[in-house]
Amino acid sequence: MSPLGPLDGVVVIELCHVMAGPTCGLMLADMGADVIKVEKLDGDDTRHTLPPDINGESAAFLMMNRNKRGVVVDLKTEDGKRVLRKLLETADVVTENYRPDTMQKLGLDYEDLRKSNPGLIYGAISGFGRTGPYALRGGFDLVAQGYSGLMSITGEGPERPPVKVGAPVADITAGILLAMGILAAYVRRLKTGEGQMVDTSLLEAGIVHTYWQSAISFATGEPPRAMGSAHPLNAPYQAIRSQDGYFNLGAANPRTWQLMVEAIGRPELAVDPRFADNEGRMANRSELIAELETVFTTRTSAEWLEILETARVPAGPILDVQEMHENEQVLARDMVQELDHPVAGRVQTLGPPVKFGATPGGVHRPAPGFGQHTREVLLEYGFAAAEIEELAASGAIVLGDA
Question: What is d(CA 142, CA 210) in angstroms, rounded to the nearest whole number?
Answer without folding.
Answer: 16
